[in-house]
């Protein structure tokens, strides 16, 4: 007995049902008659399914109608009927049902031939009603049915025929007169296909496949056509050739074929040159690569466009190019003119207009300009530039020249017109929604435990709780909730829950959009498509304190649950969205030192913000006084993080904060700063006077010290980057670099490689390691940055411990009308020979008793409220290195003050910087605003944990069980 196969039984029942439909004059569900249409199968009140696609997921009425339109567009039309493609399990693949017989056809072209054949040679079966049949026919006798001669093809000699009709199993007799049993169990037409022999190889195959067999097996392949090419420089024989054979975009490469003296034929691709060199070393005939061979068919030359300087000046006036970049473009134009080569040539092969390539002259022969030219690509859809000499978001001279060329030839690409009114209205509505969420949907710093715990059951629908508009005066009712998506994902520690439906409501009067944003349910909605649980947000926050990135956490959760989570970048932006809505005070104060510490430690953390392009920052206006509103700036940073859940693209997001001299503020605690107006005078670093230029010598020495600490592989990489021979010992390479760094361009290149594009972080902390002020520098760090921070404080500290104490005191005293660091310019004693000799011998002691107990001298208006003294010193701690060239530095040693060494925790600052360096891997890859926001957030949680430990330590040290906290309070 054969084994029962349910799949075969299902197919048999489907065919029997089709035969029944034909017998009863019914049409298949995929055949639409005139005046009819496809009917959706309702699942519930809001979701519907397609009757032809069982694998199609249930969706909304609007989307199912669009799905039906796709069926109609791909349908086959026969007479007045529309035959849609059927996806039911009649066959394994999608197919069409013939309305004249029970045949199913997969391809639409074959359906056209089948209809003609079936219409001409097949007559529909004739069925006699049961009540009119003679008695002997009611016993299921099919001999009276007319024969269907179209079931078999006419027999030809030499061609094997198909199975005879007599071989079919006969139907058994039953006592049931139902129509289903009037049809044989297997009444399918059979057709014998013709066979033919291949004239080339003698293979016997179906005749319909003979042409394809000959084409594939016995037709000689045509040679590949030549790659498109364009002559760029006729004098030197340089061409631009497509890189590969493809229908899409392909970046051109430069190829040289010069016939004069010296004769030269080469391709700039390293792979092509390596193959040629390998053939020469092996004694083989040198072969030409496909790029060089394509030059045989090259006949087109690119027209050079002389670039005008007035266009460049217009770009500078429109802030499309900086003044320094414009001068560099002019110098490169002069160098190209002297060399007799075109500066910039448009390479157009007639492809997609979305990718524009420009060949730019490069006078130096480097690894990316083997033939003295560079291909710069501009993507119009994303407004991005690519050059092989720089990273995607970094500026370079070749990009500036290409921008100059396109601004002159295709100025419409730089048109910054205002968007249409409808888009502007939609953007304004989203702005109101972002501000509403920021003001009304804040999350407490410590949510209740029930909210942090993972929800026991994920809801299927998330609707906004607002039913009326709270922003309108008369609170009009909102529109009915409309579906945003039915495929939202809830991400939590327990895994991933998909197919969650999210809904929005809108105010018909003001247009504000309201969405689900309720933290009390234990969920945090990012963009209506990704929802995080508060438990996961807390887990990510703890991992941030342990220097673990969000991508690592997501990868661990994916491996744990065996599911694919949303992209790590999306979850990171969702976490930043959560932190921006958290009502954290960011006090930045120590429980022991109070809001105004008398002793502070100044230090810096060098980092590289990759997306920070300092060279393209605009020079501030002349009326800018160097003061920033710290509250407004950090509100804009929070709005930037929140708006990422509303605006899908940053190009249309009005809340994006970009670095600029006029809008870039530090963070100082509310009780520590004098007011919301703080200093940020980094724009003055652009053109420093001679006095401040002398102050940067210390930074130059620090850069050289960092160079000495680099490993040999890193030094060799720096040498190759600066076009220096990388062979030799470590000290020889450092000496070569130091000599080359006398050139400003090489110096800046080495500095960016070691310290990054930005100036790093300036940090002010108390002796206990609590951070009080934080600033991300746009340019190279200098004493000016710390002076900006300290001059913004309500009470200037008495003791400032800084590695470059002399530079800090000199710069700060120059900026103020009266000297801030006094007496003796911030030194502990007057620089007399006796004091210098005593300090060098360790015999000089300068006691500052007001550090331990407040001074009882008459109140001074400028005195510090904790110490009662108005003296201020800029000193060097023992873990700092004094300047050996300045003999007066010994008078700035903190060891001369007996009250300082025991009260200052030097390793605390080093530990802070070490912790900050551990976060560089994931922080440096972020945008500047996200980098700034997340660093402040991480330091805030670190301060909170450090204060908790300080309180526990003080409580433990209290005597007789009396819990006393020694806090310094300011009246």
From TrEMBL:
Q: Which residues form the HMG domain?
A: 457-576
Q: Where is this region: Disordered?
A: 128-181
**Which Pfam families has this protein been placed in?**
CxC4 (PF18717)
Provide the species name. Answer: Oryzias javanicus
Q: What is this protein called?
A: HMG domain-containing protein
